[in-house]
Inverse folding.
Protein backbone atom coordinates (compact mmCIF):
# COMPACT_ATOMS: atom_id res chain seq x y z
CA UNK A 1 0.00 0.00 0.00
CA UNK A 2 2.88 2.31 0.86
CA UNK A 3 4.28 1.74 -2.62
CA UNK A 4 1.12 3.00 -4.35
CA UNK A 5 1.35 6.40 -5.97
CA UNK A 6 -0.03 9.25 -3.90
CA UNK A 7 -2.47 10.30 -6.64
CA UNK A 8 -3.94 6.80 -6.72
CA UNK A 9 -4.44 6.74 -2.96
CA UNK A 10 -6.21 10.12 -3.08
CA UNK A 11 -8.38 8.95 -5.97
CA UNK A 12 -9.44 5.77 -4.18
CA UNK A 13 -10.21 7.78 -1.06
CA UNK A 14 -12.45 10.16 -3.01
CA UNK A 15 -14.34 7.27 -4.59
CA UNK A 16 -14.84 5.71 -1.16
CA UNK A 17 -16.19 8.97 0.28
CA UNK A 18 -18.66 9.37 -2.60
CA UNK A 19 -19.80 5.75 -2.22
CA UNK A 20 -20.38 6.13 1.51
CA UNK A 21 -22.27 9.36 0.83
CA UNK A 22 -24.59 7.60 -1.61
CA UNK A 23 -25.26 4.87 0.93
CA UNK A 24 -26.13 7.46 3.58
CA UNK A 25 -28.50 9.32 1.24
CA UNK A 26 -30.20 6.09 0.17
CA UNK A 27 -30.67 5.04 3.79
CA UNK A 28 -32.06 8.45 4.76
CA UNK A 29 -34.46 8.37 1.81
CA UNK A 30 -35.63 4.93 2.88
CA UNK A 31 -36.31 6.20 6.40
CA UNK A 32 -38.21 9.23 5.11
CA UNK A 33 -40.18 7.07 2.73
CA UNK A 34 -41.15 4.72 5.53
CA UNK A 35 -42.45 7.52 7.79
CA UNK A 36 -44.18 9.57 5.06
CA UNK A 37 -47.96 9.31 5.35
CA UNK A 38 -49.49 7.20 2.66
CA UNK A 39 -51.95 9.14 0.54
CA UNK A 40 -55.36 7.55 0.24
CA UNK A 41 -55.95 5.94 -3.12
CA UNK A 42 -59.67 6.69 -3.33
CA UNK A 43 -60.81 10.28 -2.89
CA UNK A 44 -63.66 12.56 -3.86
CA UNK A 45 -63.31 16.30 -4.53
CA UNK A 46 -66.21 18.60 -3.69
CA UNK A 47 -66.58 22.34 -4.37
CA UNK A 48 -69.09 24.43 -2.45
CA UNK A 49 -69.98 28.05 -1.87
CA UNK A 50 -71.13 29.84 1.25
CA UNK A 51 -72.95 33.15 1.10
CA UNK A 52 -73.78 35.64 3.86
CA UNK A 53 -75.96 38.68 3.21
CA UNK A 54 -75.25 41.73 5.35
CA UNK A 55 -75.89 45.47 5.43
CA UNK A 56 -72.63 47.49 5.20
CA UNK A 57 -71.73 49.43 8.34
CA UNK A 58 -68.88 51.52 6.87
CA UNK A 59 -68.94 54.17 4.14
CA UNK A 60 -65.79 55.48 2.45
CA UNK A 61 -66.15 58.92 0.89
CA UNK A 62 -63.58 60.47 -1.47
CA UNK A 63 -63.97 64.21 -1.95
CA UNK A 64 -61.71 67.08 -2.83
CA UNK A 65 -61.10 70.63 -3.94
CA UNK A 66 -59.70 71.89 -7.24
CA UNK A 67 -58.60 75.55 -7.29
CA UNK A 68 -57.06 77.69 -10.02
CA UNK A 69 -54.99 80.86 -9.58
CA UNK A 70 -52.35 82.94 -11.34
CA UNK A 71 -49.54 81.60 -9.14
CA UNK A 72 -48.78 78.27 -7.50
CA UNK A 73 -48.85 79.81 -4.03
CA UNK A 74 -52.19 81.48 -4.60
CA UNK A 75 -53.68 78.22 -5.88
CA UNK A 76 -52.29 76.34 -2.87
CA UNK A 77 -53.51 78.94 -0.37
CA UNK A 78 -57.02 78.97 -1.83
CA UNK A 79 -57.09 75.19 -1.85
CA UNK A 80 -55.87 74.87 1.74
CA UNK A 81 -58.45 77.39 2.95
CA UNK A 82 -61.34 75.44 1.45
CA UNK A 83 -60.01 72.04 2.53
CA UNK A 84 -59.56 73.23 6.12
CA UNK A 85 -63.15 74.50 6.17
CA UNK A 86 -64.35 71.14 4.85
CA UNK A 87 -62.30 69.21 7.42
CA UNK A 88 -63.61 71.35 10.28
CA UNK A 89 -67.15 70.64 9.14
CA UNK A 90 -66.53 66.87 8.84
CA UNK A 91 -64.94 66.65 12.30
CA UNK A 92 -68.02 68.34 13.73
CA UNK A 93 -70.11 65.48 12.31
CA UNK A 94 -68.66 63.08 14.90
CA UNK A 95 -66.01 61.69 12.56
CA UNK A 96 -62.84 60.59 14.32
CA UNK A 97 -59.62 62.31 13.27
CA UNK A 98 -58.01 58.95 12.40
CA UNK A 99 -60.80 58.35 9.87
CA UNK A 100 -59.84 61.41 7.80
CA UNK A 101 -56.76 61.16 5.57
CA UNK A 102 -55.31 63.19 2.72
CA UNK A 103 -55.10 60.73 -0.16
CA UNK A 104 -53.83 63.05 -2.88
CA UNK A 105 -52.33 66.55 -3.27
CA UNK A 106 -50.82 68.16 -6.36
CA UNK A 107 -50.01 71.56 -7.87
CA UNK A 108 -49.39 71.90 -11.59
CA UNK A 109 -49.29 74.65 -14.22
CA UNK A 110 -51.92 75.20 -16.89
CA UNK A 111 -50.81 76.03 -20.44
CA UNK A 112 -52.05 77.84 -23.50
CA UNK A 113 -51.03 75.78 -26.51
CA UNK A 114 -52.40 78.12 -29.14
CA UNK A 115 -50.06 79.22 -31.93
CA UNK A 116 -47.63 76.46 -30.96
CA UNK A 117 -46.65 78.15 -27.70
CA UNK A 118 -46.46 76.51 -24.29
CA UNK A 119 -47.34 79.59 -22.30
CA UNK A 120 -48.20 79.11 -18.64
CA UNK A 121 -51.57 80.69 -17.94
CA UNK A 122 -51.92 79.79 -14.27
CA UNK A 123 -51.73 77.02 -11.69
CA UNK A 124 -54.10 74.42 -10.31
CA UNK A 125 -54.03 72.86 -6.87
CA UNK A 126 -55.88 69.61 -6.33
CA UNK A 127 -56.37 67.91 -2.97
CA UNK A 128 -58.44 64.84 -2.14
CA UNK A 129 -59.38 63.52 1.29
CA UNK A 130 -60.77 60.11 2.18
CA UNK A 131 -63.34 59.96 4.96
CA UNK A 132 -64.55 56.82 6.74
CA UNK A 133 -68.05 57.09 8.15
CA UNK A 134 -68.79 54.30 10.63
CA UNK A 135 -71.90 52.74 12.13
CA UNK A 136 -74.16 53.39 9.16
CA UNK A 137 -75.99 50.05 9.20
CA UNK A 138 -79.11 51.66 10.67
CA UNK A 139 -79.09 54.92 8.71
CA UNK A 140 -77.02 56.63 6.01
CA UNK A 141 -78.23 60.08 7.00
CA UNK A 142 -74.77 60.95 8.29
CA UNK A 143 -73.20 60.15 4.91
CA UNK A 144 -75.77 62.30 3.12
CA UNK A 145 -75.15 65.18 5.51
CA UNK A 146 -71.38 64.99 5.01
CA UNK A 147 -71.73 64.97 1.22
CA UNK A 148 -74.08 67.92 1.20
CA UNK A 149 -72.14 69.92 3.79
CA UNK A 150 -68.78 69.29 2.15
CA UNK A 151 -69.98 70.69 -1.16
CA UNK A 152 -71.48 73.68 0.64
CA UNK A 153 -68.06 74.31 2.20
CA UNK A 154 -66.22 74.24 -1.12
CA UNK A 155 -65.77 70.63 -2.23
CA UNK A 156 -66.10 70.58 -6.01
CA UNK A 157 -64.90 67.02 -6.61
CA UNK A 158 -66.60 63.92 -5.21
CA UNK A 159 -65.00 60.93 -6.88
CA UNK A 160 -67.14 58.30 -5.25
CA UNK A 161 -68.74 56.70 -2.23
CA UNK A 162 -68.56 53.01 -1.53
CA UNK A 163 -69.91 50.85 1.24
CA UNK A 164 -68.10 48.03 2.99
CA UNK A 165 -67.75 46.33 6.37
CA UNK A 166 -65.78 47.28 9.45
CA UNK A 167 -65.26 43.60 10.35
CA UNK A 168 -65.23 41.83 7.00
CA UNK A 169 -63.14 38.95 8.39
CA UNK A 170 -65.98 37.83 10.65
CA UNK A 171 -68.39 37.76 7.71
CA UNK A 172 -65.91 35.84 5.58
CA UNK A 173 -65.53 33.31 8.38
CA UNK A 174 -69.30 32.80 8.50
CA UNK A 175 -69.41 32.28 4.74
CA UNK A 176 -66.46 29.87 4.94
CA UNK A 177 -68.12 27.75 7.65
CA UNK A 178 -71.26 27.61 5.55
CA UNK A 179 -69.27 26.48 2.50
CA UNK A 180 -67.47 23.73 4.44
CA UNK A 181 -70.77 22.46 5.88
CA UNK A 182 -72.26 22.31 2.38
CA UNK A 183 -69.21 20.45 1.07
CA UNK A 184 -69.45 17.84 3.84
CA UNK A 185 -73.16 17.35 3.24
CA UNK A 186 -72.73 17.01 -0.51
CA UNK A 187 -69.80 14.59 -0.15
CA UNK A 188 -71.74 12.40 2.29
CA UNK A 189 -74.71 12.24 -0.08
CA UNK A 190 -72.57 11.28 -3.08
CA UNK A 191 -70.65 8.66 -1.11
CA UNK A 192 -73.89 7.11 0.20
CA UNK A 193 -75.39 6.99 -3.29
CA UNK A 194 -72.30 5.15 -4.50
CA UNK A 195 -72.39 2.69 -1.60
CA UNK A 196 -69.24 4.12 -0.04
CA UNK A 197 -68.28 5.59 3.31
CA UNK A 198 -66.87 9.07 3.70
CA UNK A 199 -63.46 9.21 5.34
CA UNK A 200 -61.31 12.01 6.67
CA UNK A 201 -60.54 15.30 4.93
CA UNK A 202 -57.40 15.05 2.81
CA UNK A 203 -57.08 18.71 1.75
CA UNK A 204 -58.95 22.01 1.63
CA UNK A 205 -58.34 24.90 -0.76
CA UNK A 206 -60.09 28.24 -0.49
CA UNK A 207 -60.84 31.27 -2.62
CA UNK A 208 -63.04 34.04 -1.25
CA UNK A 209 -63.99 37.60 -2.11
CA UNK A 210 -65.91 40.60 -0.88
CA UNK A 211 -66.63 43.40 -3.33
CA UNK A 212 -67.92 46.76 -2.15
CA UNK A 213 -69.61 48.54 -5.00
CA UNK A 214 -69.06 52.23 -5.81
CA UNK A 215 -71.93 54.66 -5.59
CA UNK A 216 -71.34 57.76 -7.68
CA UNK A 217 -72.67 60.99 -6.25
CA UNK A 218 -73.41 64.28 -8.00
CA UNK A 219 -74.32 67.48 -6.26
CA UNK A 220 -77.84 68.73 -6.98
CA UNK A 221 -78.47 71.75 -9.18
CA UNK A 222 -77.32 74.97 -7.60
CA UNK A 223 -79.94 77.25 -6.16
CA UNK A 224 -79.87 81.02 -6.94
CA UNK A 225 -77.85 81.68 -3.78
CA UNK A 226 -75.14 79.29 -4.96
CA UNK A 227 -75.99 76.53 -2.49
CA UNK A 228 -77.14 73.09 -3.51
CA UNK A 229 -80.82 72.64 -4.10
CA UNK A 230 -83.01 69.92 -2.73
CA UNK A 231 -81.23 69.45 0.61
CA UNK A 232 -79.02 66.50 1.48
CA UNK A 233 -78.87 63.72 -1.11
CA UNK A 234 -80.46 60.40 -0.24
CA UNK A 235 -77.83 57.67 -0.13
CA UNK A 236 -78.76 54.03 0.46
CA UNK A 237 -76.17 51.31 1.00
CA UNK A 238 -78.48 48.34 0.43
CA UNK A 239 -77.11 44.91 1.29
CA UNK A 240 -74.14 42.95 -0.01
CA UNK A 241 -73.29 39.28 -0.37
CA UNK A 242 -70.07 37.96 1.13
CA UNK A 243 -69.10 34.77 -0.67
CA UNK A 244 -66.55 32.08 0.16
CA UNK A 245 -65.69 29.29 -2.28
CA UNK A 246 -63.88 26.16 -1.09
CA UNK A 247 -62.81 22.82 -2.51
CA UNK A 248 -62.52 19.87 -0.12
CA UNK A 249 -60.95 16.50 -0.93
CA UNK A 250 -62.33 13.61 1.16
CA UNK A 251 -61.12 10.05 1.53
CA UNK A 252 -63.73 7.47 0.56
CA UNK A 253 -63.83 3.83 1.68
Amino acid sequence: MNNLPKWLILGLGSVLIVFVGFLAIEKAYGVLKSISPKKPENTISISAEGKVEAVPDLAVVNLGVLTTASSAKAAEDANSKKINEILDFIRNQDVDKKDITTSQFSIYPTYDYRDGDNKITGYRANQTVTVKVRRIEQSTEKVSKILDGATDHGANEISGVYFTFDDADNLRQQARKQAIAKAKEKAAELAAEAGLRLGKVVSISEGGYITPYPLMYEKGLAAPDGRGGGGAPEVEQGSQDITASITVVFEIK
User: Anything to note?
Assistant: Residues 31-36, 220-230 have pLDDT under 50 and may be disordered. Helices lie at 6-35, 72-91, 141-152, 168-193.
